[in-house]
Amino acid sequence: MNTMEEYLNRLKAAFAEEDIEDFNELKEYLLEQLDICLEEGQTEADVVSGLAPPEEVAADYYADLSLDAAINAKTSVVPREEIKEVFIQSQKKRMQKLLKAAFKVLKPLLLLLLVASFAFFLAYTVKELNEERNLAGIPTILCVLLLAIILQVIKGWAFEKRKLINGLSLGLLLVGTMMLLFFSATGQLMYTGRQYYKEISLSSNNHAAFSLDSDADVEITTVEVSSADKPSLMVKGRFKESDIKKIEAGLYDNKVNLTLDEENLFDTFTRTGRSEVIFFIPKGTILDNFHLGLSRGDLRLLDIQTKNFDLDLISGDVYAKNIIADEGNIRSDYGDVIIEESAMNLKVKSASGKTVITGMLGDLTIEGNQGLSILKFLRSDNVVLNNHSGRMILEDSETKKLTATATDGQVIVKRTNGDLSLVNESGKIVSEENKGILALKNGSGPTIAVQSSKLNARVSSQSGFIKWLQDPSQSVKVTASTETGELKNDFSDVSGKEKYKIDVKSKTGDVKILKKVE
């Protein structure tokens, strides 16, 4: 026998059919040993001649099986220590067999995952090299290292090429390490773009519009300039080459519509940092549209007249003052929104930030989750406040109709005139010194009202505590009832002929109508 193939054929013939799986494991082991010996310079014939005869190897295998049978027999005479050692070795072999079987099953899946990852990072590298003229550091390194791992995985399927594959894998590993050291030393692991500055001027004030979307961190400011100037904007910071080309190739007549730093999978290793954008708006110019869609940023917006005012911000703060618009929409997930001295019909949607609106004229709708809303000096026909678990405070305002609803937050309305409807499920309702028609409805939370003046009111609760404090000099007829709770009404003897009436009902909660004491 001069070849391993002949040796394995004779060895297989010596094994029973039911033991062929054990033969295959032994075959893999012998082939691995052959590769090692070949790498050390031995010939295949030398390796085969140094092996025990196939029949002898098979005999040893079946002798081990006989020993296992003796160990497991009820009349075993094998020493306990030997039985324990054989049992341990048997368990190790079983575990190795199980791991090998699992690896055989998972090996194709692992290879598929590795190839898919390699293809993605290769596409990433080619795309960035083509569009940004930049060799992507991390994706390139990962391509090299993944290729080295893939070669090692497929090595078992190419026995005659193992020596070459091992050499290629080692070379790729060294190349990947050298590239990692180089990119780290030069600060090029992440693509940071290049420094760029550009002023963009519109050709006309008529129907001028600005629209800017960006997934990068942006600081935005508006500046009012002379009415003789044209609307313009300035961009400054680090930008990708593809975005710079987009800015340079844009056609700007009376509109700017830019989308910069748009995030996708091929920007995973891009870090351009914060950029700055300044809008220069001539005094008296009425824009058709002013839109900002940002992932991160801080906005300081002053003195804007526009038909449509639209802000869409994931994180960051907004400060706006003297905004005059037909319609306004602001969406902010995590930032604070502050608006002062403005006029528009405004809708605000905020997840967890703080919303402060003061001195605003126009209808207002606020949708919140768990943030804080502070509203002062509003002049609105219609105000709608919806909050889940946050806190809503309205003070010193005029409205024809206010509707405020919450789940378990706080609703506080003070010194406001209008038809006021406050609804809560389990949170707190506070009404203080309001005028108009008041409707308070609570599920299980407390309801507190303080009044010096007269008004008509309806207060109801399922199980929450109700407390109404009324100035005795402005006494009104109060009708109060509760089915199972404690009831106290200091105004029960007031004549029913009063123009103003208060109706208080609770199913199971306590009700206290008390005279207000200064």
Tell me the number of strands.
27
The description of the largest β-sheet is: 27 strands, mixed
Mean pLDDT: 88
Q: What general outline do the C-alpha atoms trace?
A: elongated
Organism: Enterococcus silesiacus
Keywords: Membrane, Transmembrane, Transmembrane helix
Protein name: DUF4097 domain-containing protein
InterPro entries: Toastrack_DUF4097 (IPR025164)
Based on the model shown, name its key terms.
4 domains, 27-stranded mixed beta sheet, 8 helices, DUF4097 domain-containing protein, transmembrane
Structure commentary:
This is DUF4097 domain-containing protein. Keywords: Membrane, Transmembrane, Transmembrane helix. It comes from Enterococcus silesiacus. The chain is α/β, with parallel strands linked by helices. The protein has 4 domains: about 5-80; about 115-185; about 195-360, no CATH class; about 400-518, no CATH class. About 30% of the residues lie in helices and about 40% in strands. It has 8 helices and 27 strands. The protein has a 27-stranded mixed sheet that branches. Helix 1 (about 5-15) packs antiparallel against helix 2, helix 1 packs across helix 4 (about 55-70) and helix 6 (about 135-155) packs antiparallel against helix 7 (about 160-185). The chain is elongated, with a radius of gyration of 40 Å. The chain starts with a helix and ends with a strand.
